[in-house]
Amino acid sequence: MLSFRELTCQDKGIHTQYYQASPVHYAEYSFFCLWGWSHAYPVEIAETGGALCWFRSGGPLPGMFGPIGNWDAVTDWDAELSHFKPGDVIYDVPAKVREILAGRSNLRFTEDRDQHEYVYAVKDMIALKGKAYAHKRNRVRAFLDGYEWDYYPITPVDFASIMDFQERWRARRMLTMTQEEADSLADEDEAIQKAFDRWSDFGLIGGMLKVDEEIVAYTIAQELDPQNLDVMFEKAVPEYAGSYQAINYMFLKEQGSGYTWVNREEDMGEPGLREAKMSYNPAFMLEKFQMEIL
Asked: What structural domains does the chain harbor?
């Protein structure tokens, strides 16, 4: 059986070795996405002694998930799978791992559409050309032409102001949300604060839009690899027409143009979020599966 231990910041170096060796870099498996939310979803890590590393989560969504590492280099999958017993379910298994293991009679795979990650071509998100992007272009223009705005990259001197903005943004939402949704946003606030606390350690970047020197939108992102950028947090004041589309556009134009792909993570099965992510015409999805040991 696997020997799990609590994931801490001291594991960043070990995690990086496995993550960089992974043929595909899922946003969910980046170190910040694992550690940054560990206050809400405690994460444990386990190495098999081979090419792979697996995880286990506590909190409201308990279970095993993974792996990261060079899936193509595993020569003995029987040894890797021997760490699991019949009845175990491993969540968020990457599509390539499922492809490698397809056909084994002791495994059953189920697609988990809610956890698929949306990946877009950066050049398309900046150009917004063609009929498919007509609505997005109009929304971006509504903001850029309708307000006296400024765009700024986020620096440490802006952290307190962004947390103040986040508090005001959450207060608006509190009027119509459930307690579960409120708790989830409180968890998000803590993750954002952890991002600011370790901003330089994780090489995070971000940008914000201001109108009359007041923040009306911001984005926080991380580099997954030299080709892939992951947008982790993005908020805007909806009273400013086109603010969400404008921060998406301006951030990639000003700070993301050097990347090929931008990952905007999963929709978690939320209908509104799915509609919004699909409306940007993803180039492809990073699929995930549940793997049950029979």
From this structure: 5-116 (3.40.630.30), 117-265 (3.40.630.30)
- What whole-number distance in Å separates Cα of residue 128 and Cα of residue 258? 17
Distance CA 159, CA 294 (A): 49
The half-sphere exposure of 63 on its side-chain side, counting CA atoms within 13 A, is 15
Residues 231-256 as b or e (16 or more Cβ within 10 Å = b): bbbbbbbeebbbbbbbbbbbbbbebb
Give the per-residue pLDDT at 183: 82
Residue 172 pLDDT > 80: yes
Q: Are 231 and 265 in contact (CB under 8 A)?
A: yes
The upper half-sphere exposure of residue 245, i.e. CA atoms within 13 Å in the direction of its Cβ, equals 21
Residue with tokens 């970047």: 205
DSSP single-letter state for residue 116: P
The letter for the amino acid at 192 is: I
* Residue 32 backbone dihedrals phi, psi, to 5 degrees: -65, -40
pLDDT at 204 over 90: yes
Q: How confident is the model at residue 173 (pLDDT cuts 50, 70, 90)?
A: confident
Ramachandran assignment for 265, one of left (phi > 0), alpha (psi -120 to 50 degrees), beta (any other): left
pTM of the model: 0.95
Computed on alpha carbons and rounded to an integer, the radius of gyration of the chain in Å comes to 20
The two three-digit tokens of residue 25, written as one number: 């870099």
E strands present in the chain: 5-6, 43-47, 52-57, 63-69, 89-94, 107-111, 117-121, 149-153, 205-211, 214-225, 228-236, 261-263, 284-286, 288-293
In single-letter form, the type of residue at position 110 comes to: T
